[in-house]
Amino acid sequence: MKLRLTLATTLGALMFSNSAFALSCAQPDMSKTLETAKASEDVYHILVGKFVSESVPVHTQSTLVDNGDGTSTINRPPLRQAPITTRSWFEGSSISPNRHSDVALTRFPVDIETSCIGGRWCTSVPSANRDMIAFIQARDGQPPVLKIKPCSALVFSSNIAEHVETIRQGLR
């Protein structure tokens, strides 16, 4: 009976932790992201426009590998993979408190860092055919970086005009 209770408790905890992870992927809040960026010791630039990448890295998925002896092995990605950095350019503008102070950017270099957690939750480079708002982190002597993690709150691709106004108000 004790073994059943322990097993049931363990399974319940695992199911709850997966549910909790899924809940953490709720739609991010622009105002919270802005306040977090403002409170950070890091410097963030807020951009609206598109990213154009040199190449799109592909995170490895499970593949079947022929061992050459009539057998095969399933090659699975590790539970956590090191982030992958892709060089890209940004086309659009920076957002400032006043629309007239926005700076137009053309071929502005930005590194995009993508990552995987658990082998299933992988991020990718943003689509070049869609406008978005991105919070990119400044770096000394290097292009700024956009870190996209699973359930990331640094990229917004819907309600652009509404979000831009929210950002302007928050910057004032």
Description of the structure:
- With 172 residues, the chain is an alpha+beta fold.
- It has one domain (28-171).
- The chain is built from three helices and nine strands.
- The strands form two sheets. The protein has a five-stranded mixed barrel. The chain has a two-stranded antiparallel ribbon with strand order 2-3.
- Strand 7 and strand 8 (142-148) form a beta hairpin.
- The longest helix is centred in the first third of the chain and has 22 residues, at 2-23.
Q: H/E order of the elements?
A: HHEEEEEEEEEH
Helical percentage: 25-40%
Q: Which structural class should the secondary elements be placed in?
A: alpha+beta
- Taking all residues together, what is the mean pLDDT? 77
Number of strands: 9
* Computed Rg: 21 Å
Unreliable residue runs:
1-23, 56-62
